[in-house]
Amino acid sequence: MSPHSSGKAATTTQPQADRGPASPVSGVADPQLAAPCGRWRRFSAFFRSHGTDAEIAAVAGLAIVLHLIFRYALRLGPVSLLPLYFALAIGGVPLIAGLLRQAMKREFGSDLLAGFSIVTGVLLQEYLVACIVVLMLSGGSALEQYATRRASSALRALAARMPTTAHLVTEQGFASVDARSVVPGQVVAIFPHEVSPVDGEVVEGYSQMDESYLTGEPFQLAKAPGSQVLSGAVNGNTVLKVRATKLPVDSRYSRILKVVEEAEQNRPGMRRIADRLGAWYTPAALVVALLGWGLGGSAERFLAVLVIATPCPLLIAIPVAIIGGISLAARRGIVIKHPAILETIDTCRTFFFDKTGTLTYGRPALKDILCVPGFDEVEILAYAAGLEQYSRHPLAQAILNAARARQIKNPVPTEVTEKPGQGISGTLSGRRVRIAGRDSLKSSSGAGLQLPPVAAGLECVVLVDDRFAALFRFHDEPRQDSSNFIRHLQPFHNAKEVVLLSGDRRAEVEHLAKMVGIEQVHAGKTPEEKLKLVQEVTARERTLFVGDGINDAPAMLAATASVALGGQNSDVVAEAADAVVLDSSLRRVDELIHIARRTRAIALQSAVGGMVLSALGMGLAAFGFLPALAGAVSQEVIDLAAVLNALRITLPQAKMSDF
How far apart are CA 484 and CA 478, in angstroms? Predict the structure, then answer.
């Protein structure tokens, strides 16, 4: 699925064969290719369609080998140039065509010198030199593409779990269909130990499902009619019939696949460093080349300088370092959605944190049970646990944990229903039990109930036969590493401000802030208010926002960099975040900062080091001590050194966190 796909079928049914050739720029039908440079585009499109960068590099390398064999071993003379002509046509022509298109748009990248080298080499009949430059550029691009594919290998392995077929329930029984064809409202059967192909609601059957791939929780979640099912969850020992509630392309698992594609298709953000360095390096190299031409009176010196000056450390080493950083992060359970975060996150000095699911586990613990006369704590807790074993509400597990701690046996409910915003209800031991929030009761049968006053923390109300029976109060415990993580930001990451930004009640937010060591607190904020605050701070300095991706998207987009934690209350995919930590660990956030710092340092080392060596070669070439062919070989050696240094980022580190 393309990152830009809407997930809906195209409205046109015109066969592809009738649409004409696609434009190499826009990708839309353009049979005439009548735009300026149409011939160049057509020529470029022809060769690009006949080979990838890896294939072009292979052709260029083979052509060089054949040329050397034909010329020096077989002594075939002019025939030895034929392989070079072919390689230059396959790889050089598309590159020059692309540079001409960029020039028409007044866009000059750091590969401009490579284009000059190829053109000059051809004009001076130094075809071997020009072919070596093509090999350098196509080989570097192929390496970058390979590294990008490797970077997302862990997630692709996760995506491979998704079934391609679904067992559609029909009047005749079960029919195996393409999972992508299931639409909301259709009922599918999930057999024992199968992976759910859809997001949906159980309509028949009782079972348990493993959702640990998404929530990180090791326990099995009970499922009954009315329970929600996530695509990608593994069924237990009983058949479930599930009514699909979303199109497959909109399911939770498909959104994970979208992250994979974005991680592969996004161009490394730190390529901008290459463009900034190339802004002065390219004109400087041209000046030195012209001086060499003037000093020696020979265009060969001009070519020699350009060849050794070809900025392959910029074109290859920096992307390799970035992709290496993405790969290293992926192995640590961190998905880099926007590679620019590797350039910016270590420079952020104001840190914004959401509360629930970020600094806390998002797993509130049951602290108090306030029962009215006539009801017993054990009885009420048994009723509540019996219902909540079929719920995915964040308070459900707290109730189950409390019942388990007291060794209370959960009764089996019937007629379980759970509607968004209305709580969960069912029948247990002949009594109708409902668990809901205080606000949801205002518009229902509980509107006239006399409830205890509101206190700090979370709460839910238990009704038995429409009578108020008990009030449960919860507190969300901070993560074990929250305090240490917050306290280490100033000494180790030069944090100027650490802000707790939450929509929860002030008493609860201030209680947590005191526990973890945060002084600045903004509580009771709506998503719009969060956005405004983050925008104001980001306007004057770089900011990092860490949240769980729910209601945080506007603020995440406004921050300089943003990280989403995947947990039981959130999607793994936080659409607005620059990076996603799959296991909700703050230590992983610290590791991401260290990976970014190391990636940036190694990328600059590779680029600047390679440029310094190239500058020395440029000086030798300008004074006639380094001919064009030797310069091309020397540049290959420099490129190899730069790339090997860039690959150091993928080496495992003994320590990737400092708290």
Answer: 11
One domain, residues 425 and 443: yes
pLDDT of residue 255: 66
User: Is beta strand 561-565 parallel, antiparallel or unpaired with respect to 543-547?
Assistant: parallel
Confidence (pLDDT) at 37: 43
DSSP line for 283-329: HHHHHHHHHHHHHHT-HHHHHHHHHHH--HIIIIIHHHHHHHHHHHH
* C-alpha dist (Å) from residue 560 to 267, 351, 548: 18, 10, 17
Strand pairing partners for 201? 228, 243
Q: Is the pLDDT of residue 48 over 50?
A: no
Q: Say which residues have a Cβ less than 8 Å from residue 168's Cβ, sequence separation at least 6.
A: 174, 175, 176, 177, 182, 186, 187, 188, 189
Is there a contact between 187 and 169 (Cβ–Cβ < 8 Å)? yes
Same domain? 436 vs 375: yes
Q: Half-sphere exposure of residue 225, counting CA atoms within 13 Å on the CB side?
A: 11
Are residues 417 and 341 located together in one domain of the fold?
A: no
* Residue length of the chain: 659
- Please give the single-letter amino acid code of residue 5: S
Domain that holds residue 387: 365-475
Whether 566 and 484 share a structural domain:
yes
pLDDT band at 64 (very low <50, low <70, confident <90, very high): very high
459 and 382 assigned to the same domain: yes
8 A C-beta contact, residue 93 and residue 43: yes
Alpha carbon separation from 240 to 18, 173, 192, 209, 410 (Å, rounded): 46, 14, 8, 10, 21
Q: pLDDT-based confidence at 256, cuts 50/70/90?
A: low
- Using the 3D structure, point to which of 582, 610, 639 is the last residue of a domain: 582
Q: What is the mean pLDDT of residues 431-453?
A: 73
Q: Which of 449, 448, 442 is nearest to 421 (CA)?
A: 442
The answer to whether residue 103 sits within a structural domain is: no
Helix, coil or strand: residue 26: coil
Q: Is residue 274 part of a domain?
A: no
* CA-wise closest residue to 225 among 411, 415, 14: 415
pLDDT tens column, 179-211: 989 999 999 999 998 989 998 999 999 888 877
396 and 355 both lie in a single domain: no
Main-chain dihedrals φ then ψ at residue 645, nearest 5 degrees: -65, -40
Token representation of residue 248: 């497959």
Instruction: Judge contact between 637 and 617, C-beta under 8 A.
Output: no
Residue 355 lies in a domain: yes
The residue among 582, 611, 637 that closes a domain is: 582
Q: What is the largest CA-CA distance in the chain?
A: 106
Backbone angles phi, psi at 517, to 5 degrees: 95, 30
CATH of the domain at 518: 3.40.50.1000
In a domain, 642, yes or no: no
- In what helix (H) or strand (E) does residue 399 lie, and over which residues does it extend? helix 396-405
Are 518 and 377 found together in one domain?
no
Q: Are residues 559 and 410 in the same domain?
A: no
In a 13 Å sphere around the CA of 388, the CA atoms on its Cβ side amount to 24
- Number of domains the chain is built from: 2
